[in-house]
Amino acid sequence: MLKNSRQRLTAALLILLVLLFAAGCGSNSEPDALSYVLLIGIDHGAQNLLRVSYLIAVPKVIAGGGQEGAGGGGGEGQRSANVITIEAPSIYASMNMVNSFVGRRISLMHAKGIIFSEAMAKDGSMGVIVPGLTQFRETRGTAFIAVARQKPEEILNKMTPFLETNPAKYIELLAGNQSFTGYIPGEKLQDFYNDLKIGGINPVALLFAVSNEKLPPHNGQSSYRSEGDYVAGEMVKKGGVSLEAMGAAVFRGGKMVGTLNGDETSIYSMFRGQYGRRIYTIKDPLKPGKLVIMDVSQTDKPRIKVKLTEEGPIIEARLSLEGNVLGVNSLIDYSLPRYRPVLEQAFEELIEQQARELVEKTQHEYRSDIFGFGNKALRLVLTQRDWEQLNWAALYEEAQVSVDVEYKIRRTGTQLRLMPIARSNSESIQ
């Protein structure tokens, strides 16, 4: 009995000691002794292997509600974030080198995104670096991954939000607008790495560019162009943040092989089941000179079937969408039973056409299965050797792909009936 009591006492003391030593900060660093990185930019170096840029938060300014953005000046000269660029043989070496003059230790625990140069994406350096990034315990797998059409340090210096005093919040909202714009992919760092190592899919990354910030002269004429028919750097805009996040970079074998515009990225997201919602402006099917504006969302995950035949793979995809009519320039009442199916069919045909064109583009121009059709085909083989012998990359180029879109209009606006513009008697006589 006494022996059992001693054993229990010893066990209790051991547990107490373990709890005492386990408590506290395991990193041995106080919060005010760390430099919190918000964004990382990676490019080829001039005098070393890499040129790494860090957007580092200034907590005191952010907490005080300062009005300056990242890299900006003015007022009292206080900035909520600073950009530091350094050349080093590796990313982790660059962190240690920055520690030598910043004072606080660099931390990636709050890094929202990683931006690579287009040159690194195209020559395969980006695909080599990403796996190593995912191994570091401070790297967040939920950080977005992007390709910059200019130098990454230029992108970081343009992070000057005018609606947010906190650049971290701005970056988070910018990368998260995929759920309601549809113009950018929703892939994160961990998703990109997973797609790199899986043979049945190729990754994509968000596309960034610095805005031109110039408006062309107005000649009195205008023409229709889809709001998603742009890639980053091509938008006609002036004002706000001098940045554009539009479209996606397409990869094959770890190398960037092309880009998708905003419309194509929306279709891509539909195939991946990542599409949230988006505003579509299309030509009126009954009056092509007029426009119909709709808010379109995805109602269900895409249904994709893959069959392996002697003639090659057969892929069948079905996309389910629904939407609300926001505006009709022609004043045609599409809430009426005789008109509603016309608009639904017109939009179905539009999305089916865009989907077919995008699939053909990835098959013959990019030769990259970014939709994950190969993951469905992977289930049709028994072993890894069978999968390697199948050679899906070559089969995808010859696959027969059919796309069926189902679109239903749920609401047609808050007005019960659209009425034409009233005209005066003199106008009606003329």
TrEMBL record:
Transcription regulation keyword on record: no
InterPro entries membership: GerAC_N, Spore_GerAC-like, Spore_GerAC-like_C, Spore_GerAC_C_sf
Residue span, Spore germination protein N-terminal domain: 30-205
This protein's UniProt keywords: Germination, Lipoprotein, Membrane, Palmitate, Signal
Protein's name in the database: Spore germination protein B3
Organism: Sporotomaculum syntrophicum
Organismal lineage: Bacteria, Bacillati, Bacillota, Clostridia, Eubacteriales
GO biological process, alphabetically ordered: spore germination
Residue stretches spanning the membrane: none
Primary site of residence: membrane
Localisation per UniProt entry: Membrane
Family membership: Belongs to the GerABKC lipoprotein family.
GO cellular component, one term: membrane
Topology of this chain in the membrane: Lipid-anchor
Stretches assigned to the Spore germination GerAC-like C-terminal domain: 246-413
Gene, per the UniProt record: gerBC_2
